[in-house]
Specification:
By secondary structure, this protein is mostly helical. The protein is built from one helix and two strands. It has a two-stranded antiparallel sheet with strand order 1-2. A hairpin with a 2-residue loop joins strand 1 and strand 2. The radius of gyration is 40 Å and the shape is rod-shaped. The termini are far apart.
């Protein structure tokens, strides 16, 4: 009985180990490239979404400021003048029914 491998079997074993190592190195390399690409894409998406949300918040604040301005204008238009609360502008007084 021969305990060792013959030359032909050793060559196949070396070839199999070499192919396995090259495949492993190639897999690690491709995985690293894909990981970096996904990381850059995630950062790009995050920046886009933060810019988009900042614009949305800015627009909402501007709408709120406009609404507050309209409320302030209405408040000042209905202030007491000479003891009378003006809910209707003076040029529409002739249309208001007298009680």
């Amino acid at each position: 009985m021969v305990a060792g491998l013959n030359k032909e079997d050793r060559g196949v074993k070396r070839y199999a180990v070499l192919v396995f190592i090259l495949g492993l190195i190639l897999t690690v390399f491709i995985t690293h490239i894909v990981y970096r690409g996904q990381q850059q894409l995630a950062e790009s998406n995050f920046e886009f979404l933060t810019d988009n949300q900042a614009e949305n918040i800015k627009e909402l604040v501007m709408l709120d400021i406009s609404f507050i301005g309209a409320g302030a204008s209405f408040y000042h238009a209905t202030q007491h003048r000479h003891g009378i609360t003006l809910l209707v502008s003076p040029h529409h007084w002739s249309m208001v029914r007298k009680a």
